[in-house]
Design a protein that fits this description.
The complex is a heterodimer of chains A (113) and B (243). Chain A is 83% helix and 0% strand. With 113 residues, chain A is mostly helical. Chain A is elongated. The termini of chain A are far apart. Chain B has two domains: 101 residues, Roll (Ubiquitin-like (UB roll)), CATH 3.10.20; 134 residues, Fumarate Reductase Iron-sulfur Protein, Chain B, domain 2 (Orthogonal Bundle). Chain B is built from ten helices and seven strands. In chain B, β3 and β4 form a beta hairpin. Chain B is elongated. The N and C termini of chain B lie far apart (66 Å). Classes of the chains: A mainly alpha (113), B alpha+beta (243). Bound molecules: iron/sulfur cluster (2 copies) and FE2/S2 (inorganic) cluster (FES).
Chain lengths: 113, 243
């Protein structure tokens, strides 16, 4: 038996969209907490921002941008798929969405390093 | 062709009250053998108590659908060669997302109840005493209606849909596609009743557009796009009312 018996491109796009949304939802509280330090504890914020120079943190940021891009393009894909009465190009749209997400996150990675 | 002489098969057994168990069989291999041939061989030569369903054996009636290695299929139109691939054995189970009656026979009552719940029945514009209304085969609406008309209620799409798994109230791809077909029918008198039926909880807005229905429909129908059509029609009606 295959591990995921009913996997197909649109289904994978759907799973990726959900997982990226979940990842972003988990990240957001931490993000807001760090931002809030600008008002409550600027010294700690500065110390934290130092960390962002570390390669590991850079890598994690790339992951975040990837999640954001995947989710963004996933949403665009869904709107196109449901609001534009197309049928055949849906698969290519899903592929283009993932490709676009990869492109944006790779660009970000290259800029970061 | 490799000279395989037997096929290993795992078949789910038991009724709704049992925890499902699997029986293993070795079935003689033949050329052009379908999964339904395999199931029939087991019932005829190994275990007469095996319960399953079929009728036409040519992909017309929709009664033979089962889960074959995790994928819903018409077993009469699925060659063993196609599903065996690299797998060592074939696993055959009753259709997913439906209660089991016994062994490989799933209970399709919930599936058909949802056709009714989705207003998948015709509301006539005329009586039998009136002349027959003309239908323009070239109109855009007719094209939409015709796209889904070959559905044979096999519930393959229903078994493929993960939204049905997660939400037992979800009407499912076949019922919603039927609603969209009628919605576009020139002879349909009550489009509002259809939209009312498909916009409640478990209606078209529950669909996540994952497309498993479209990917697995053995008739190459596209319930996902039909449901997207219902979503657009429902949104249009909503804004018209609100505006
Ligand atoms: S597109 Fe909608 S109906 Fe089809 S499998 Fe996905 S959730 Fe189910
Ligand atoms: S839409 Fe296709 S898979 Fe679904 S019930 Fe109809 S024929 Fe079967
Ligand atoms: S037996 Fe009729 S569709 Fe398979």
């Amino acid at each position: 038996m295959r591990a995921v018996p009913r996997a197909h491109p649109l289904w994978l796009a759907y799973i990726l969209h959900r997982l990226s949304g979940l990842g972003l939802a988990l990240f957001l509280p931490a993000h807001f907490w760090v931002l809030s330090q600008a008002m409550t504890n600027p010294a700690r914020l500065d110390a934290f921002l130092e960390l962002t120079g570390m390669p590991l943190v850079k890598l994690a940021e790339t992951g975040l941008v990837f999640l954001l891009a995947v989710h963004f393009f996933g949403g665009l894909r869904l709107m196109a798929l449901e609001w534009l009465p197309w049928s055949a190009p849906q698969k290519s749209l899903a592929a283009a969405a993932t490709a676009g997400a990869f492109l944006v996150s790779t660009l970000f990675l290259m800029r970061a390093i | 062709m490799t000279e395989e002489t037997t096929i290993k098969v795992r078949v789910q057994r038991g009724t709704a009250d049992d925890t499902p168990r699997f029986d293993r069989f070795e079935v003689p291999a033949h050329d052009s053998q379908t999964v339904l041939d395999v199931v029939s061989w087991i019932q005829q030569h190994a275990d007469p108590g095996l319960t399953y369903r079929f009728a036409c054996r040519v992909g017309m009636c929709g009664s033979c659908a089962m889960m074959v290695n995790g994928v819903p299929r018409w077993t009469c139109r699925t060659h063993v060669r196609k599903v065996l691939g690299d797998a060592a054995e074939i696993e055959i189970r009753p259709l997913r997302n439906l209660p089991v009656i016994k062994d490989l026979a799933a209970d399709l009552d919930p599936f058909f109840d949802k056709w009714v719940a989705a207003e998948g029945r015709h509301h006539p514009t005329r009586t039998r005493h009136d002349p027959i209304a003309p239908v323009d085969p070239g109109s855009a609406e007719r094209a939409q209606a015709s796209a889904g008309i070959e559905c044979i209620n096999c519930a393959v799409c229903y078994a493929a849909c993960d939204t049905v798994t997660g939400n037992p109230d979800y009407l499912g791809p076949a019922a919603l596609q039927r609603a969209w077909t009628l919605f576009n029918d020139a002879k349909e008198a009550d489009r509002d009743a259809i939209l009312d039926a498909v916009t409640g909880p478990g209606g078209c807005t529950s669909c996540h557009s994952m497309g498993s229905c479209t990917a697995y429909c053995p008739n190459d129908l596209d319930p996902m796009s039909a449901i997207a059509g219902l979503k657009r029609a429902a949104a249009r009606r909503y804004f018209r009312k609100a505006g």
